[in-house]
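Project outcomes to date are best conveyed with an example. Our students and postdoctoral researchers have been running inverse folding experiments weekly, and each run begins with a structure described purely in tokens. The record below, which covers 542 residues, was selected by the lab manager from last quarter's runs and is presented without edits.
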């Protein structure tokens, strides 16, 4: 019986896991839609035909790009955490950049643009009103006294108002920006100065155009796409390609719809307990739309004003922040199928960082903590491996005695293990336990925005990116080689060669892994080597 065969299987499983995740990321079928005007719903703001029943909501809005008029203008609002550009056409946020986060591969350290109306990746928010009479939507030009202004919300919230009126309808649309918040409330005050009741629906949607994929080895298999949540239906992902054949149409009370990016999120949140219809659609380009509209109209009686509310979340995917914004929003931090293990790991990691102030040091201390938790199990396994090493001469003698009779050799080996009270699989237990922790931490480091641009020391300025000089992966490969030298030698020449190649294979994989993950693995290997030497010395003395 060969005790190293399970080790080979485990190492192969780890390699296959990373190959599978990358394959899933790059081979998801993408269907490019063909736009047909007959299939598109009515444009937002169009009146519902008179024959339509009063209780039937207008069709979901589509992404209608209107030419910028000479009357359109913009203004800028700057807070401590973001800078937003708002246009009078649509009274929407046309561009939003996040302070403290920088664009990928930006040598000039340009702030990260979450919302942007053009370029390789288009991501915009559109919201407006629908009804039986013309109402302002995301193509309507509003008026504002703030046009051309730069407004700062550094110490207290600021409100930016846009006004529109036509006939008997007057609308005041108000954005509220708080100094340190990524949540932006949007408020519509609709006044009816006519003689007939007015029925109003509110919609809020995101339009996203995915950027072209980057190189296979330089990206992470993190979910990027639409998502939605309601108390009744819980959290669901809606990949962009799936929208083509399976558009979303769901009535829910509460919840939210969102577009999740790597590290960042845009979410549209209805008023609490407000019945809404979640929808999605796809246009040529492709342009993927997810949004919601109120399921029931708000009736504005003659001479009255009614307020409709919605909220936007536009910021980083920090679990502690998201959980305070809306129920279930923290689920957009995607830790994969090991979330139950990854969430506690991140919680411990974040609390250590609050004390030490360095995410790299936090990873090292978390690794030490994990090793302490599993110390008894690891010690027993290393003890088993040390005893196995002492049995190598007797095992070699058995192989020489039985020659090519594998059945007799296996029986003799089992008898030897039984006599010495040895478990040939005992040395595999640390690795088996460590693999789920490793994979869970892999997802934590991939999708934790706190580690984005987080420095460690010296040349490592971003723990979420690969080591630029490959020092940590090489150290990891050397530490694996040292571990193999401490383990009992294999009798099978083929398996011995395979095990010698493993450090090279893993080093090649880890060249493109986040530096934080490689730091964890290097620390774990060094601690394992120290523990193994300590155990072996005790066994040799005994």
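After processing, the design step wrote out the following sequence:
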């Amino acid at each position: 019986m060969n005790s190293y065969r399970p080790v080979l299987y485990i190492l192969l499983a780890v390699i296959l896991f990373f190959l599978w995740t990358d394959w899933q990321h790059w081979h998801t079928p993408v269907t490019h839609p063909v736009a047909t005007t007959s299939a598109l719903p009515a444009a937002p703001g169009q009146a519902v035909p008179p024959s339509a029943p009063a209780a039937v909501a207008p069709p979901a809005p589509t992404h209608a790009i209107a030419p910028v008029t000479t009357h359109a203008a913009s203004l800028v609002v700057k807070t401590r955490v973001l800078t937003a550009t708002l246009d009078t056409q649509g009274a929407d946020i046309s561009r939003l950049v996040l302070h403290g986060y920088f664009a990928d591969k930006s040598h000039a350290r340009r702030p990260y643009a979450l919302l942007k109306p053009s370029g390789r990746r288009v991501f915009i928010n559109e919201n407006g009103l629908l009804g039986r009479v013309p109402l302002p939507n995301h193509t309507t030009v509003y008026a504002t006294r703030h046009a051309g202004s730069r407004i700062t919300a550094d110490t207290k919230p600021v409100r930016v108002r846009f006004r529109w009126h036509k006939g008997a309808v007057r609308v005041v649309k108000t954005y509220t920006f708080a100094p340190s918040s990524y949540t932006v409330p949007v408020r519509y005050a609709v006044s009816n100065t006519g003689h007939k009741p007015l029925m109003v629906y509110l919609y809020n949607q995101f339009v996203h155009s995915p950027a072209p994929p980057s190189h296979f080895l330089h990206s992470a298999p993190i979910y990027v796409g639409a998502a939605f949540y309601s108390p009744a239906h819980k959290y669901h992902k809606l990949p962009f390609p799936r929208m083509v054949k399976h558009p979303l149409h769901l009535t829910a009370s509460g919840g939210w719809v969102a577009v999740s990016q790597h590290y960042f999120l845009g979410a549209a949140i209805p008023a609490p307990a407000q019945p809404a219809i979640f929808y999605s659609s796809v246009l040529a380009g492709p342009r993927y739309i997810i949004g919601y509209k109120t399921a029931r109209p708000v009736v504005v009686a003659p001479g009255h004003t009614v307020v409709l509310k919605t909220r936007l979340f536009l910021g980083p995917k920090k679990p502690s922040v998201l959980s305070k914004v809306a129920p279930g929003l923290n689920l957009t931090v995607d830790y994969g199928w090991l979330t139950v293990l990854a969430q506690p790991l991140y919680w411990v990691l974040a609390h250590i960082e609050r004390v030490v102030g360095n995410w790299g040091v936090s990873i090292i201390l978390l690794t030490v903590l994990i090793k302490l938790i599993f110390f008894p199990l690891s010690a027993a396994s290393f003890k088993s491996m040390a005893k196995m090493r002492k049995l190598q001469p007797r095992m070699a003698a058995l192989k020489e005695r039985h020659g090519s009779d594998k059945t007799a050799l296996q029986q003799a080996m089992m008898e030897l293990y039984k006599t010495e009270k040895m478990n040939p699989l005992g040395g595999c237990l640390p690795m088996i336990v460590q693999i789920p922790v490793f994979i869970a931490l892999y997802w934590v480091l991939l999708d934790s925005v706190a580690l984005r641009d987080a420095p460690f020391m010296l040349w490592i300025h971003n723990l979420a990116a690969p080591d630029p000089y490959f020092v940590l992966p090489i150290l990891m490969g050397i530490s694996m080689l040292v571990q193999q030298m401490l383990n009992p030698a294999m009798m099978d020449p083929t398996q011995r060669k395979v095990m010698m190649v493993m450090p090279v294979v893993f080093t090649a994989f880890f060249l493109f892994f986040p530096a934080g993950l490689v730091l964890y693995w290097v620390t774990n290997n060094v601690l394992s080597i120290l523990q193994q030497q300590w155990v072996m010395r005790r066994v040799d003395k005994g």
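DSSP finds twelve helices and 19 strands in the chain. Residues 1-6, 22-56, 66-70, 214-219 have pLDDT under 50 and may be disordered. The training component of this project remains on track.
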